Amino acid sequence: MRLVIIGAGFAGMYAALSAARLRDIHGASPEELEIALVAPEPTLVIRPRLYEPKPETLTAPLTDVLKAIDVVYVQGSAETVDTKARAVGFRTADGRRKQLPYDRLVVATGSRLFRPNIPGLAEHGFSVDQLDDAIALDRHLHGLADRPAINGRDTVVVAGGGFTGIEAATEMPARLRAILGKDAKPRVIIVERNPAIAPDMGADSRPVVEDALKKLGVEARVGAGVASLDKSGVTLSDGERIEAETVIWAAGIRAAPLTAQIPGERDKSGRLLVDRDLRVPGVAGVFATGDAARAACDDAGNYALMSCQHATRMGAFAGNNAAAELLGVPTKPYHQKAYVTCLDLGEAGAVFTRGWERKVEIVGDKAKKTKHEINTVWIYPPRPERAAALASADPEHVTEV
Predict the structure, then answer these.
(1) Is the same domain home to 70 and 165?
(2) In the chain, how many domains are there?
(3) Domain containing 47: what range?
(4) What are the UniProt keywords, alphabetically (predicted)?
C-alpha cells in the first residue's frame, strides 16, 4: 500500500509525520505501508517569515527528518492527478515525466498569491509570497542604495492591508534604514480597498495596529486600490499618483492550481471542500489539507484560515486519517477550536490575540517576544530523531494553544 503526499509545506510535513506516527503505533512496516512525499525540494520554506530581511536563510531541511521516520522523499514537481487511475504525474529535476501510483492521496499543495491582471503588476510588482519572490525583493531593496535619492527611491507602496501587507509594511522602515543609512527617511504607504486597514482584525485589535502604523510613520490609503503600475510608481483607483520604486503586492491568496484537477467542489479561493475527516467527498482515496482545503474547525461555523497555524494541525489530521483508512483503524475528525493571531508590527512590537473575535491579550515588546518564539521555534520542523519527530505529530495536540 502507498500513501502519497503532495507538498512539503507545513501541511505536507505534518501529514507525513502523522501518517508515520500511526503506522508506527500499529506496528506496520514501511514495506507494508509506504509513505511518499513529493516536492521539488526536501525543504520547508518558513513562509510566514518571508517579510523579513535575508529571506534566503528562511528554510529548514527535511531530509533527515523524513529519513528518521521512514518517509520516502520523491523529488519532483507534481503536475497531474488522475483520480480514476490513482496516480500522480510529476516532473523530475532533469525534466523527465514520471507517474507515482497511490492508494491514498493527501493534497497539501498550499497556496499562491493572487495576482490580478492590473497593468504593470507583473512587470513592476514585488511580493513576499514565495521564497524566490522574497529574495528578488530583498535584492531590489539593496540595489536602491546605488540609485539617486529621487523619483520615489525611498518610497514603498504595499498593496493590501491584511496580515501579510501589515507585516511587510511595518518591517520596511527598519529594512530601508539598514540599507540606505540610519539617517534615511523612508516613506511607506499601505493601500487597502476596504474602509480600514486590517479589515479582519476586529474592533479590539485594530486600534493597536493603527497606533503602530502611526508610531512608525506608515501612511494608509483606504477605500482605494491600485489601478496600474509602472517603473516609477503607482496610480490608485481614485486617481492619486504615488512615485515609488518599490511596490509590494500583498492582496489575497488562492489555492495552488493543482487542486483544480481534483473533481470536487471548491470555494471562491479555489480550496477543495472537505468533510470532517478531510476527505474530498465523491473522490475516492483523496484527502486535502492546509491551504488546499476548506475545512470546518468546529460546530460554530468557523472554518480554517489559510495560515500555518491551521495547516500544521490540518496536516496532522489528514495524514493520520489517510493512513488510518489503509491500516483499517478509526479516523479522527479534524477540529481546531483554539485560535490565536500574533501580528508582527516591526519596531512597534506586535499584537497577540485569542479567539475568532481576536481579543487582544498581549501588545508591544512582550507580544514581540512571543512572535519571535513562534517564528523561530514553534513553526520549525521537529528534531530529526525518530521518537521525538513522531511524538510531535499527534493530531490531537499539534498547535494547541
Answers:
(1) no
(2) 2
(3) 2-112+253-336
(4) FAD, Flavoprotein, NAD, Oxidoreductase
